[in-house]
Amino acid sequence: MPDGRDEPGVDRRPQVAAGNGREPSNNVVRNQRRSRRRHRNALDRLPSQTAEPGHTDDVAGRLDDERAMRP
C-alpha cells in the first residue's frame, strides 16, 4: 500500500531465488558437514605422529662424548 501499512496476508520479506527459503540454510549445513568430513578424511590419510626422541638427547650425548675424549 502506498501509505506504508502492511497488507494482511502479504509476506514482505525478500524471497530467495531457490524457492521456499529453506534451501540456502540446508545448503549451508550440507556444505559445513561436507567440509568437516573432508577435513577428517584428510587428517586420517596423514601418517600417525609417534613420539620421536628429541635432538636434545643426541646433543647431550655428543657433549658427554667430547668431554670424555678431552685429556
Automatic annotation (TrEMBL):
The UniProt regions of compositional bias labelled Basic residues, in chain numbering, are: 31-40
Basic and acidic residues bias (residue ranges): 1-14, 54-71
The annotated region (Disordered) lies at 1-71
Domain of life of the source: Bacteria
Name assigned to this protein: Uncharacterized protein
The scientific name of the source species is Sinosporangium siamense
- Lineage, please? Bacteria, Bacillati, Actinomycetota, Actinomycetes, Streptosporangiales
